[in-house]
Design goal:
Blueprint lengths: L3 H9 L2 H11 L7 E3 L1 H11 L11 E5 L7 H14 L5 E5 L3 H5 L7 H5 L10 E4 L5 E4 L5 H4 L2 E2 L9 H14 L1 H4 L4 E2 L6
Parallel strand pairs: 2-3, 6-7
Antiparallel strand pairs: 1-2, 1-4, 4-5
Length: about 190
């Protein structure tokens, strides 16, 4: 069995991940986290005993800033991160504006946004605090991730539209081809 402490040790011992966290921290963004595949893939790669890191399509940096919800600010931050580390496929999103894209009520924080990600295994984030301590946010815990369970978050079971989005993601992502121990859970339409 793997614990939250084990996950934090895996990340803190990974030079590549720590460099990404330190680079992101240097921007001093409010309520920032690196989430989703950055953490999930590390856990699944480790539990599958992969000798090499699975390539992830992007590094999802989120933050929460109601004072500047202009999408151009996100692009500016991506450009800045690319100038600091051009080898990383940065993706930066201000969760204070993402509700507009999805036509849903506003999020209250980055962790609130993480809790509304499509899958429980994706609803996870890490960051460094002001003292460089590693923090982990897992609104649904880590049980599904470490047991290779891919399930929708509660939020993605509430409407037919969200169920369809979840099901489309499962078809498109094909994570089980990379991590063969995964169990993908499907939902019946309401």
């Amino acid at each position: 069995m793997i614990s939250e402490r084990d996950i934090m040790s895996l990340i803190s011992e990974d030079k590549w991940m720590m460099e990404i966290l330190e680079t992101t921290k240097s921007l001093e963004l409010p309520d920032w986290w690196i989430c989703a595949g950055f953490v999930r893939s590390k856990i699944w790669d480790t539990l599958h005993k992969f000798s090499e890191r699975t390539i992830i399509p992007d590094i999802d940096v989120i933050y929460f800033d109601r004072t500047n919800s202009n999408e151009l600010e996100e692009k500016r931050l991506e450009t800045l991160l690319k100038s600091l580390n051009p080898t990383i496929p940065w993706s930066v999103k201000n969760e204070a504006r993402m509700h507009l894209k999805s036509n849903i009520p506003p999020y209250t924080s980055s962790i609130d946004a993480i809790s509304k990600f499509p899958e429980t295994a994706t609803a996870i984030g890490v960051k460094l605090d002001e003292n460089d301590n590693l923090l982990l946010a897992a609104p649904y815990g880590i049980t599904d991730i470490i047991n290779f369970e891919v399930k929708p978050t509660t939020y993605f079971t509430e409407t037919k539209e969200r169920i369809e989005i979840y099901e489309e993601r499962m078809t498109k992502k094909k994570w089980e081809l990379t991590w063969n121990q995964l169990k993908i859970h499907h939902i019946k339409n309401p």
